[in-house]
Amino acid sequence: QVQLVQSGAEVRKPGASVNVSCKTSGYIFTNYYMHWVRQAPGQGLEWMGLIDPTGVTTSYAQRFQGRITMTSDTSTSTVYMEVSGLKSEDTAVYYCARFRGYFGYDYWGQGTLVTVSS
Amino acid sequence: DIQMTQSPSSLSASVGDKVTITCRASQSISSYLSWYQQKPGKAPKLLIYAASTLQSGVPSRFSGSGSGTDFTLTISSLQPEDVATYYCHQTYSTPSFTFGQGTQLEIK
Fold this sequence. Notes:
By secondary structure, chain A is mostly beta strands. Chain A has strands at residues 3-6, 10-12, 18-25, 33-39, 45-51, 58-60, 68-73, 78-83, 92-99, 105-108, 112-116.
């Protein structure tokens, strides 16, 4: 069965970086793009960006340009997202989601809570 | 960026009621619209894709309609397990795939 398993919760100080992983299984990794979505406490969903499974193509929401980097490792069927220059406003649950294009996000990771606090 | 505006932002209805949530795009997105249900502490769940196609395994009381700029999610007979927040999401405009702000649904 398809699974997206994310890395565990993280606590960082302002200005630091964090790397969140999303390990996939149960499907052909190179057949689907992966997107990242975050949700601040009590807030809605915010689209952050996407990566093709080979890692060649990435596209980031304008507000995150220069602060996030998405990478992919086809040998382990895992995608990663690094967020740098963390601020308290980056405290959120970060989700990876498998993208089926016109057909939406059919599988999601369980979410990774990143807390930014001094 | 395309803005997605949902209404209402919150809604209270009785079990068995018909519930409608609307989503308006700031410009045409054809049928590149999905609906998600999110329960507290859980990842979102896909309900509807391509504006009106029910995702496998989703109860038939959920339906979607619309194209262009105006879309609706309808629950034909509200059940207690439908208490959740619902989001629309457009995937027409790369690279900015925006979500609506969400509609919180409660039981009266």
